[in-house]
Specification:
Blueprint lengths: L15 H32 L5 E3 L4 E8 L13 H24 L3 H23 L3 E9 L2 E2 L5 H24 L1
Antiparallel strand pairs: 1-2, 2-3, 3-4
Helix pairs in contact: 1-2, 1-3, 2-3, 3-4
Length: about 180
């Protein structure tokens, strides 16, 4: 009797074709985030000099800032090795997230969160490759408290991380 290869485990009602379509749809979400991120950065580079700021409201301004480091300018003052480290880390993270999307694309909240993280990570990797630093431009402050400038990619990563936490919270709650 001939053995057959084991069939891949899929969520109920998810065919191989719809599984492929779902992870590709999530990649489309990531691509939209990358496009929005890069478009806004092109505008900032085109219209602002480094350090130039324009107030929008009493608590928000647009400013062109170059960040050679990571979140909150961590390692920004390093000797240059951090650029390649963050590019490598971003590429590795992107590959891992794509693999996760392929295997969990049917889980809508989880996959949307991953797509946000992927779009943001790739957006910032593009900056590091093209410019050698990340371009930040969204600057919030309130009552003497100033939050470090950030960009669309950073926002997508933050939203994605928050949604991953929410997804885990909901998953644990369902298991009770």
């Amino acid at each position: 009797m001939a053995r057959t290869a084991p069939r891949p485990v899929r969520s109920p009602g998810v065919s191989a074709q719809s599984g492929a379509l779902s992870w590709m749809a999530w990649l489309s979400v990531s691509a939209l985030i990358i496009l929005a991120d890069q478009f806004t950065k092109v505008l900032i580079v085109g219209f602002f000099q480094v350090g130039e700021a324009h107030p929008v409201t009493g608590f928000f301004r647009l400013i062109r800032v170059h960040n050679a480091g990571a979140a909150f300018s961590m390692l920004a003052d390093a000797s240059g090795w951090q650029r390649w480290f963050f590019i490598g880390f971003g590429v590795a993270a992107a590959l891992f997230v794509v693999w996760m999307l392929r295997t969990h694309g049917a889980q809508k909240l989880f996959a949307f969160a991953l797509a946000c993280v992927l779009g943001g990570a790739v957006g910032n990797v593009i900056d590091r490759i093209v410019y050698g630093h990340v371009i930040d431009f969204l600057d919030f402050h309130w009552a003497g408290v100033h939050f470090p400038a950030f960009n669309v990619a950073d926002s997508a990563i933050t939203v994605g991380a928050a949604l991953l936490l929410l997804d885990e919270f909901l998953r644990v709650r369902r298991q009770r």
